[in-house]
Amino acid sequence: MQVRLEQLTKAFESRKKDSVIAVNKLDLTIESGKLIGLLGPSGCGKSTTLFMVAGIHDVTDGKIYFDDRDVTELSADKRGIGLVFQNYALYPHLSVWDNIAFPLLNSKDMKKRLKKQFAEQHSNSPNYKAYINKLVEDAAKLVEITAYLDRKPGELSGGQQQRVAIARAIVKSPSILLMDEPLSNLDARLRIQTRDEIKRIQQQTGITTIMVTHDQEEALAISDEVIVLKDGLLQQQGAPQDVYDNPANQFVAEFISRSQINMVHGKIATNKLYLGQEEWFPLPAPLMDQEVTIGLRYENIKHAMENIERSFTASVTAKARIGGISTVQVRLADGQQITLLNDHDESLRESERLNLVVKPQSILVFNQK
Ligand code: ADP
Predict the structure, then answer these.
(1) Is the pTM of this model over 0.80?
(2) Mind telling me which PROSITE patterns this protein's record contains (predicted)?
(3) Is the CB of 47 under 6 A from ligand 1?
């Protein structure tokens, strides 16, 4: 199912009278069957957006469409969505089976729908009870927790509990799956494993899925598309690699980066790009003369063996090692400092002069703020 947001806005009234605009005129289309990473720093409006799509928060302004249907005023239980929360939100006193079956057994609308489905008998179940059991078992199978159906949530690991929560969300065959930071309570190893599981489950079911995360690596790893928000405003939407290669602005460039990014001063003059005062690259297309900010990702700056065309010289000022990553800081001819990954050369000495190169397509040029 396609999800479309039109000028979606949420303002929270604060005690000090001035309201907080958590989501600001968001226009978005999420195509059917896609896995979307809704991304941005804490407080940028991700959860508020998700909760409006879910029907948990009222909207202040704007519209929400599922395909062509306006669902803006529809209550949460009528939207046909599955929800997964950061803290799993399982019922501790119920078994895994009962937790997964809960949405099937405790909603009048759902019961009506299931009875109808059973009557039409698309399943091979001999009776209604067996039909429900099959739905629960199918969901458990999909998330690979069939061995734990009799256990209580407290007897499972965090990763297993999150799988139960996912099974509970998908057992009712939702048209849209909404996940709010589903991985952030898991340790690093489980996070990667569960992240890949979410991808597999989403691909297997084909359910349009929106996953909120503040972790860009997580979003880039599994999303078909990422949506980047800042201060409630849409910054960019696109395939992870496209957003990485062509960030819409400095914020996106800094946020969507495998390593970090240098922002240095440059200018455009007579269709050439200058790094500091150094003439550097002819521009592929004419641009107005102006001061610019140049974004250079650490991982895209390489040592050149010799002083080849379009290389630039710099002298080593410091080296650092954080975790397994080794970096070197260098000073450019005009005094600006940049950092790059120190991939190979552990023997670099301070003040040593280096020739550096950057692939033209990895140079990001931004208007100055
Ligand atoms: P994110 O999920 O990106 O961390 P949120 O959507 O939770 O961000 O919050 C966006 C903004 O709205 C923040 O400034 C937050 O403080 C504010 N906010 C969120 N929920 C409420 C609420 N119930 N009442 C008042 N302000 C809220």
Answers:
(1) yes
(2) ABC_TRANSPORTER_1, ABC_TRANSPORTER_2
(3) yes
Distance 256 CA to ligand 1 centre (A): 22
Alpha-carbon gap, residue 152 to 351, rounded angstroms: 62
**C-alpha 79 to ligand 1 mean position (Å):** 23
Q: How far apart are CA 69 and CA 65, in angstroms?
A: 5
CB 52 less than 6 A from any atom of ligand 1:
no
- CB-count burial class (<10 Å; 0-12, 13-18, 19+) for 249: middle
- Give the residue, out of 48, 57, 178, 228, with the most ligand 1 atoms within 8 A of its beta carbon, to mutate for a pocket test: 48
Instruction: Please determine, looking at this structure, whether the domain spanning 259-367 carries the CATH number 3.40.50.720.
Output: no
Taking only the tens place, the pLDDT of each residue in 250-261 is 999 999 876 689
Range list for CATH 3.40.50.300 in the chain = 3-253
Domain with CATH 2.40.50.140 in the chain: 259-367
Residue 156 has pLDDT above 80, yes or no: yes
Q: Which CATH number fits domain 3-253: 3.40.50.720, 3.40.50.300, 3.40.50.1010, 3.40.50.1980?
A: 3.40.50.300
Rounded CA-CA distance 47/87 in Å is 14
pLDDT for the residue numbered 306: 67
Q: Does the CB atom of residue 153 touch ligand 1 within 6 A? A: no
Q: Which two tokens stand for residue 61?
A: 């302004």
| Sheet of 325-332, strand order | 301-303, 353-358, 312-322, 325-332, 337-341
